[in-house]
Design a protein that fits this description.
The chain is of the alpha+beta class. The protein has 4 helices and 2 strands, in the order H-E-H-E-H-H.
Amino acid sequence: MDHKLYALSKRVGEALLAKHRKLATAESCTGGWIAKCVTDVPGSSEWFDRSFITYTNKAKQQMLGVPELLLAD
């Protein structure tokens, strides 16, 4: 992974731990890349909860509750 992305992911994790927070992501065109960057950081399970990769509009509606009108072209 790019050193800058690793450093950023690590800083995000440190900030979340300091505030007793957790991270969840919902990705589409990134195909899980954000989750991959985050989970490359050792100990990320302490602050990274989950990721949803919803590539199709149907998946976005079913898993995330995104209204169909919002997804219309």
